């Protein structure tokens, strides 16, 4: 049987890191086994589901490159199918109407707690042989409850966590259709996975407690059980639950912050899965290597430093043209026109190996395309009268160079001549020059910076202070 996995988010918010990793593992498992990856939007929570959240999920999936073979399917478009299956369960005596009011259920749970019992539905409307039920009360719309087994155990071999088992006595007759007729999550997900022939349900371990109820529904419908694999949660660097302060934001925020999608895919794949000691790998290698055997059952920790290290690797490996295109978009969002300055690819090439995000790269190239702010403390510390004397000598030598001779080599030769003439070491020229040209003490090789900045702009910036 062909492997079929699915990612089935609820569109009540953005696609966060945990959801993105779940989608990635489902995608990678399907691709590894040459199967199908299905996208399903579980939007039955009409009060909280929004079109904006749906779009945010689709944007995140697209940015990460997790192409799906079928979908997106929407649960709100499958209501007729859910009603059909609910009616079948009612007809077969595997589900029943419950007329208990919310007030009655609250009182029932309070009484159970007072006795030290775990609150659960007491089966008051459950039909049993020899049991006489009261007539349905007027004006009380019923819910539909699934008639669950009351004895024995239910368990499964989880492909991540191993054998998991529950006593059926701990479960109850859960609601599969609300009083307004809308089906519930545990019911819909089983019907969807059954209809879509999902073979492997790979999801977060917050769903472990839902699984025994879903298994009972599979059995009641005569459906083949899928394999279950429950992924442990992602913690923050401090070992606490991942929160917004840790980075639990939309995946698209990482795009805005300057991370490359291939870096996010690489890093997310290593959160709870490994292939030996390999830290860096291509999408093709991930597909070739990925399986569920090497997913750890323990929680993974999100590490910003490691993510930035991975991102820096992919920035270094990216074509200059691609990086320049990304930087151009980011400059435009800041109101900066890269056409009003040196060739962007040449500037990006200078700084690519120094950047760990695209935002850092954009910050680095900014001084080439807008007036430079010269920090007073840097000027005071490094551009004194003796430095100005050295810079003037260098400026005069640069002025004699033609545009065609304006190369790193000729500029480096001019620097050496200035150092010899003024009797100083390179820092006495290099640091003041960087401060005057870029407003910073550090930069790539200064002869290359001057070459890319161009003769006219270099001389103009020198003239401001020397």
Structure, explained:
By secondary structure, the protein is mostly helical. The chain has helices at 17-32, 51-64, 79-91, 102-114, 185-195, 211-221, 251-256, 261-269, 283-289, 304-317, 320-333, 344-351, 358-365, 376-382, 385-399, 408-422, 426-438, 446-453, 455-465, and strands at residues 4-7, 36-41, 70-74, 95-98, 143-146, 153-158, 162-167, 175-177, 200-204, 227-231, 234-235, 300-301. A 3-stranded parallel sheet has the order 1-2-3. Strands 4-5-8 form a 3-stranded antiparallel sheet. α15 packs antiparallel against α19. The termini are far apart.
The biggest beta sheet is recorded as: 3 strands, parallel
What is the 3D shape?
Answer: elongated
Mean pLDDT level: 95
Number of helices: 19
What is the compact description of this entry?
The chain has 19 helices and 12 strands. The protein has helices at residues 17-32, 51-64, 79-91, 102-114, 185-195, 211-221, 251-256, 261-269, 283-289, 304-317, 320-333, 344-351, 358-365, 376-382, 385-399, 408-422, 426-438, 446-453, 455-465, and strands at residues 4-7, 36-41, 70-74, 95-98, 143-146, 153-158, 162-167, 175-177, 200-204, 227-231, 234-235, 300-301. The strands form 5 sheets. The protein has a 3-stranded parallel β-sheet with strand order 1-2-3. A 3-stranded antiparallel β-sheet has the order 4-5-8.
């Amino acid at each position: 049987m062909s492997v079929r996995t699915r990612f089935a988010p609820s569109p009540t918010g953005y696609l966060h890191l945990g959801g993105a990793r779940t989608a990635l593992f489902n995608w990678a498992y399907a691709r590894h086994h040459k199967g199908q990856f299905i996208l399903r939007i579980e939007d039955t929570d009409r009060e909280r589901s929004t079109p904006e959240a749906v779009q945010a999920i689709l944007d995140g999936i697209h940015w990460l490159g997790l192409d799906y073979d079928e979908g997106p399917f929407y649960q709100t478009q499958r209501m007729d199918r859910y009603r059909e299956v609910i009616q079948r369960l009612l007809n077969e005596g595997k589900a029943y109407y419950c007329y208990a009011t919310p007030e009655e259920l609250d009182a029932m749970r309070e009484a159970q707690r007072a006795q030290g019992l775990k609150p659960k539905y007491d089966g008051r409307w459950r039909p049993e042989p020899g049991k006489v039920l009261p007539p349905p009360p007027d004006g009380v719309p019923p819910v539909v409850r699934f008639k669950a087994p009351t004895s024995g155990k239910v368990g499964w071999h989880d492909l991540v966590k191993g054998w998991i088992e529950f006593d059926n006595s701990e479960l109850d007759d859960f609601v599969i259709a609300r009083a307004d007729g809308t089906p519930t999550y545990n019911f819909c997900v089983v019907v969807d996975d059954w209809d879509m022939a999902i073979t492997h349900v790979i999801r977060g371990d917050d769903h472990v407690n839902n699984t025994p109820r879903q298994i009972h529904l599979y059995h009641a419908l005569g459906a083949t059980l899928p394999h279950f694999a429950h992924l442990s949660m992602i913690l923050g660097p401090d070992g606490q639950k991942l929160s917004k302060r840790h980075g639990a934001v939309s995946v698209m925020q990482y795009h805005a912050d300057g991370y490359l999608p291939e870096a996010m895919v690489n890093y997310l794949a290593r959160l709870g899965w490994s292939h030996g000691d390999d830290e860096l790998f291509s999408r093709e290698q991930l597909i070739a290597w990925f399986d569920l055997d090497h997913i750890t059952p323990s929680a993974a920790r999100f590490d910003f430093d490691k993510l930035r290290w991975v991102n820096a690797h992919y920035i270094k490996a990216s074509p200059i043209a691609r990086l320049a295109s990304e930087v151009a978009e980011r400059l435009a969002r800041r109101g900066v026109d890269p056409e009003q300055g040196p060739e962007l690819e040449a500037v990006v090439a200078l700084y690519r190996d120094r950047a760990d995000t695209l935002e850092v790269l954009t910050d680095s190239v900014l001084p080439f395309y807008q007036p430079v702010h010269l920090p007073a403390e840097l000027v005071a510390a490094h551009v004194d009268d003796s430095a100005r004397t050295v810079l003037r000598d260098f400026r005069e030598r640069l002025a004699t160079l033609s545009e065609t001779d304006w190369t790193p080599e000729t500029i480096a030769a001019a620097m050496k001549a200035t150092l010899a003439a003024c009797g100083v070491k390179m820092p006495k020229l290099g640091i003041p020059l960087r401060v005057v040209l870029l407003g910073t003490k550090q930069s790539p090789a200064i002869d290359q910076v001057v070459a890319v900045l161009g003769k006219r702009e270099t001389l103009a910036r020198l003239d401001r202070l020397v």
